Amino acid sequence: MAGNSGRGNFYTSEKEPIAVIGIGCRFPGGANNPEDFWKLLRDGVDAITEVPADRWNAETFYDPDTAKPGKMRTRWGGFIDKIDEFDAQFFGISPREAVCIDPQQRLLLEVAWEALEDGGQVPEKLAGSKTGVFIGISGSDYHDIQLSISDRDSINAYTNLGGIHCVSANRISYILNLLGPSMAIDTACSSALVAVHLACQSIWNGESVSAIAGGVNALLKPEMSIGFSKASMLSADGRCKTFDERANGFVRAEGAGVVVLKPLCQAQAEGDPIYAVIRGSAVNQDGQTNGITVPNGQAQEAAIREACKQAGISPEQLQYVEAHGTGTPVGDPIETKALGNVIGKNRDAGSYCTIGSVKTNIGHLESASGIAGLIKLALALKHRQIPPSLHFQTPNPKIPFEELGLRVPTALEPWPNGSGPRLAGINSFGFAGTNAHVVLAEAPQNAVDGTNPKSKIQNPKSFLLPLSTRSLEALKALAASYKDFLTTEDALLSDICYTASLRRGHHNYRLAIEANSKEELAENLEAFLAIVKPKVREYLGCNVPRVICLV
Length: 551
Description:
By secondary structure, the chain is of the alpha/beta class.
């Protein structure tokens, strides 16, 4: 992959790097947490499916002839499961209000909470803090359904709050009592990465002490897909064949992703896990081009250069770029030329910058696409591996890869370490011209992993795992998830119990299990699950040794 001639040519940057300490996600292919998302990426999984029947009838709206009114030329998309489900009780929301809330808002509440838990941030301790919330969001399918002419009688006091974009961020701030800036950002496909940029700026400017940033998209109605099809933007066979000569458009997708951000020195002092660090970012606009949706390569180049300058590095130091990479005949050549003109210059002979796109796995999440790419990049830096970019068979003849100093990975690759840290960038471009680029680096070698700092010197005979939720049903589900985690993930029992004890909020429905080993803990959880009655509202204790349940 890349050695770089500019290793010793660093810009001076006075900015404190920002640590990515927590991740929450719902992505196609059942990638509902960072571990499952990494497995999907690592294994080169194609998560695209036919449109589910509960969204719209694919056959009714499909026609290969794009001139047919009211039709689209694709049956495909990237979809998440159970988008209609939501634990309203957990967030203190009434059932009547919950049905009026856009699934995008509901997804964001859940993944934001999960991102905080992933980063070991106890929500109750954040209350009253200057924590900012920055969310990229563009679509409004659910709100459009609620405001349809045929359904005006169902409009109530919750309808507007449930669908207005600003509430997607504001509701997170309200539920968690966060006092930092809170805003929704709509720059189309670059919305989420612009949200990350603004979150970093807010931390660097002192407005926020930490931030929750991300994006969301939901595909509930066919009309937007019809519009994109008429514009010849969608792939007829439903695959983003990024950088390939067969590239014929993108495939729409949905999902949500959130990261928790904090200044690096603060994250290290507080013992937080660190996936990667953000070194710099930039946002600009295309201005006038041959059409409002036609990219401007020079503007893309300027964004990359500025982000590298802000990061204190020279562009040729970037070893990998997560490209916008939608797989369109116009966009791919423009983006790769911009990357080559900036990053491909001044590299050592035989040194290439590797480029790929998560859209080849899960499709184009539009307003959430930037956060999907950033999470992929953070996970790749953590694991020091570069996942394959799918559907790359024959290089696009309009892209001179060798001349540009670029290459595309087709299999999982190790991420070699040079004389400096592993460095990477991510592109995200809005279809109306707003460009964003963010530079990430691997976590410092002395960074902690968020586990028990005393686990290596303590050797207790037994451990206590405390679990708690806000309902008995949820407690049962949590116990089941821990049982699965114990049997599939490689983690110390002391670290698991430490995190559950000190880096989680504690609620009214509680379960405490003592065990000497991971195997015994899994057995005790299985015993609890075998006897608990999910519909019982009052349940005290159980006849399983070393297991206490209080609800």
